[in-house]
Design brief:
The protein is α+β, with helices and mostly antiparallel strands and 210 residues long. It has two domains: 127 residues, no CATH class; 60 residues, no CATH class. 40% of the residues lie in helices and 17% in strands. The strands form two sheets. Strands 3-1-5-6 form a four-stranded antiparallel β-sheet. Strands 2-4 form a two-stranded antiparallel sheet. Helix 4 packs antiparallel against helix 6. The radius of gyration is 25 Å and the shape is elongated. The two termini are 48 Å apart.
Length: 210
């Protein structure tokens, strides 16, 4: 089995950053089209909100939706507000919050720890298995995926060659921080979930006039 590539962390970081920036860019374009005379300092502060505490939402409303001079159109702001993490029981599990947190870690050069977990399967008929973990194991040098007791052939039978006994494979996982610890997710599945969620959200923003 070929060793896992060491580039997974960099690839994951690029995906997270691009997805997060796509939301920032959508909001930036909407605001600057409505307010072309913003100062450079005001432009630099534009960032798509991902708020997990309801008490802090008022700060975002004051910045982007002040009734006297709203930077964001009301229909667009309604879509943004409706998709905030603080609306669900555990905001730390909200996809927008997770995306923002993980992208922020990458931005500050904190490499994402990608855990490679490996497993083995044996074909039907292998009845002398002595060890086969029920779950995938961390893929480290010397990790044991399976042990099997093999009956030694009689000397008179000549050389014996064992073939097609099973398969081994590994899959990349990412440890996701939550309010109660961490959750381990498949990297590919998580990136697909983020991509789909951001795509749907951008469509909703576009329909609202963003």
């Amino acid at each position: 089995m070929a060793p896992p590539t060491e580039e997974w962390g960099l690839v994951v970081g690029d995906i997270l950053t691009n997805l997060r920036h796509s939301l920032d860019h959508a909001l930036f374009g909407h605001i600057t089209a409505r307010h072309p005379n913003l100062t450079e300092r005001e432009r630099q502060k534009i960032q798509y909100p991902a708020v997990k505490e309801p008490t802090k939402w008022r700060e975002q409303e004051k910045r982007y939706a002040d009734p006297t001079d709203p930077w964001v159109a009301a229909p667009v702001w309604a879509v943004i507000e409706a998709n905030q993490p603080f609306h669900i029981p555990d905001p730390s599990l909200h996809q927008l919050y997770l995306l923002s947190k993980l992208a922020g870690q990458d931005k500050h050069r904190t490499l994402h720890v990608v855990v490679h977990r490996a497993a083995a399967t044996l074909h039907a008929g292998r009845t002398h298995i002595t060890e086969l973990p029920a779950t995938a194991q961390p893929l480290t040098d010397g990790a044991v995926l399976v042990r099997e007791r093999i009956l030694r052939p009689l000397p008179s039978a000549g050389p014996a060659v064992l073939k097609d006994r099973g398969e081994t494979a590994y899959i990349e996982h990412l440890d996701i921080p939550t309010a109660t610890g961490s959750v381990r997710r498949s990297v590919l599945e998580l990136m697909e979930d983020f991509t789909n969620a951001v795509g749907l959200h951008l469509d909703s923003l576009s329909s609202a006039g963003c």
